[in-house]
Structure formats: structure tokens, C-alpha cells
Specification:
It is a single chain. With 299 residues, this protein is of the alpha/beta class. The protein is 48% helix and 14% strand. Strands 6-3-9-8-10-11 form a six-stranded mixed beta sheet. Strand 10, helix 11 and strand 11 form a beta-alpha-beta unit. Helix 1 runs antiparallel to helix 2 and helix 13 packs antiparallel against helix 14. The radius of gyration is 23 Å and the shape is globular.
Length: 299
């Protein structure tokens, strides 16, 4: 090693261990991850899934990115986030895969798509909007927004949500809808209808909490797909907002009624994930529909 001017593996392991010990005291998933990798290094197990032992600088970048994501309060475009943290618009992209894998494995959250993971930490690929329609009066700075008088869909970005104040909610319920096409086709009654514009990250949940805090007696419903992602999104919505959302048209009767339009489930891994939901108390209300989906292999 000396002759080749290469560091010994034990020295590389020690350098990475010293880096991770700086984060091991944390009580969040980053601390959990750091402690786990230190444990593996102590036992001389491979950690190449997350770190290249010969590149300690990249390891530092990965840990810096994780901490920056955990502290990210404002919604930012991915490249702007990279500039903010690394002064380089493409630096984050180079380690994004490893960062996403770490979050997926150690955060304790369930995500359907890779973009969902970063969205949860307010980092998005492109600007996104929340769409509202139905009834409700709001104020954004000095402007009054009356959805009933407007009569069309109204879009809000993250900044608009921050500035929004609820003035009136002459409605019986709030309905969030997973799919944009469904949202556009749906005709509101005495209700506020919301399309969250993709994965419901912190900013979108801020809007829901403002509505709930204004009138907690309202009924809150979520209309999602009758599939693995649909169930997971509803459960995540309930846990993160603490709002008692009810499922809308996500039951066995609905699936049977439209069974001829269902899609076949061909992926065995998908079926296993679906079966795993049956062991989780959070999904007990969907037990009959999930069992039927597994038996018939449809969604």
C-alpha cells in the first residue's frame, strides 16, 4: 500500500467512521443511518451501497445533502437546491440516487415514486400547483378569492399557500382528489375540492391544516386510486396532517362495479407489497378490497 501510495482499507474505514460519528448523535433518520453504518464498519462489512471508501469527499457531500434536506422548509426546484447547498446546479444529481436510497430505507416512510421522496423534503423537479374549486372564500395578501364567484379552478403555488388566509367555508365537506383528470371532470356540490398537484409534501399539507384549523368539524374525504399507491397516499395523508380523512369510492363495491375497467396486476413484487398491507393495522378498512385485488389480480 505504501509503495503504491494507496491508503489501506482500514484507514479508509476509519476516515468514514469519523465522518459518520459527527452525525450519530442525531435523533432523526440521519442519526439512525449514521449509527448503522458505523456498526457495519466496526464489523468490516461492506458499505458500498451508500459510500465509496476511496472517496471521502463524496461521502461528505452525501451527508451534507441529507442534512440540508432535513432542514429544507421552503419548496425549491432541485437545481436551485443544489446551488444553495453546493454552489453547483448539478452536484446534487450526482449523489441523488444514494441519498434517495438512504431516505427510503431509514426514514420509516413509504413512498411510491422517487420524486415523492424529494417532494416530502420540499425539493421538486418542476414547479407544481395545488388546484381548488367549489366553495370557499380566501385572502392572499390584499386580494379576496371567492371560488363560488370565480366558477373555475384556481391554482396556488407554495408562496401562495403560505400567504393564504381562510375567510369563509360555506361547505359540508372537503374532498381531495389524487388524479388531475378526475379533478377536472368532477362537479363540486356544497364542498371544497382540492387537487394536491402530486405528492402532498409539507407545503400542501399546510393548506389542508389551515382549512382544518378554521373549521375542524368539516368532513374530510380523499378520493384516490384503488391500488397500492392510492392506499399508501391516503394513509400518509392521515398520518402527516392528523386530519381524520375518510376514503371516498375506494372500497370493494366500487372495484366490483367497475371491474371490467380494471388493470391486471402482472408484477409479483407488487402483489407481495399489497399482501403486506394486510398485516398493517393502518389498512384494516381496506382488508376486503385488498384481498379481492390479490385474488383477482386487478387494480
Amino acid at each position: 500500500y505504501t509503495y503504491l501510495k494507496r491508503p489501506k482499507k482500514s484507514e479508509q474505514e476509519q476516515a468514514l467512521k469519523e465522518l459518520l460519528e459527527l452525525y450519530a448523535h442525531r435523533t432523526d433518520f440521519i442519526g439512525k443511518f449514521a449509527r448503522k453504518i458505523v456498526e457495519q464498519l466496526n464489523e468490516h462489512q461492506s458499505v458500498k451501497r451508500y459510500f465509496n471508501l476511496s472517496n471521502i469527499q463524496e461521502s461528505k457531500v452525501i451527508m451534507t445533502a441529507l442534512c440540508a434536506l432535513a432542514e429544507q422548509e421552503q419548496e425549491r426546484i432541485k437545481r436551485k437546491f443544489s446551488v444553495l447547498v453546493f454552489k453547483d446546479s448539478k452536484r446534487f444529481e450526482k449523489i441523488e440516487g444514494k441519498v434517495v436510497s438512504i431516505i427510503r430505507e431509514f426514514s420509516g416512510e413509504t413512498f411510491s415514486e422517487e420524486d415523492d421522496i424529494l417532494s416530502e423534503f420540499n425539493v421538486i423537479t418542476n414547479p407544481s400547483y395545488v388546484y381548488l374549486k367549489g366553495k370557499g372564500k380566501f385572502q392572499c395578501d390584499k386580494e379576496i378569492i371567492d371560488l363560488a364567484k370565480l366558477g373555475i379552478e384556481f391554482a396556488l403555488n407554495a408562496t401562495g399557500i403560505e400567504r393564504l388566509t381562510v375567510l369563509e367555508l360555506p361547505i359540508t365537506r372537503v374532498l381531495t382528489i389524487e388524479n388531475l383528470t378526475t379533478f377536472y371532470e368532477y362537479k363540486p356540490k356544497d364542498e371544497l375540492v382540492i387537487y394536491l398537484g402530486g405528492y402532498h409534501n409539507r407545503m400542501r399539507r399546510t393548506l389542508l391544516k389551515k382549512i382544518y384549523d378554521y373549521e375542524p368539524q368539516l368532513s374530510f374525504y380523499h378520493w384516490g386510486d384503488i391500488d397500492l399507491g392510492g392506499f399508501q397516499i391516503l394513509n400518509h395523508l392521515r398520518k402527516k396532517t392528523k386530519i381524520p380523512f375518510k376514503a371516498y369510492l375506494m372500497d370493494l363495491d366500487t372495484l366490483k362495479q367497475y371491474e371490467e375497467d380494471a388493470l391486471m396486476i402482472k408484477n409479483k413484487s407488487y402483489l407481495k407489497k399489497l399482501e403486506k398491507l394486510l398485516e398493517d393495522e393502518d389498512f384494516l378498512e381496506f382488508k376486503d378490497v385488498i384481498q379481492y385485488m390479490n385474488e383477482e389480480r386487478i387494480k
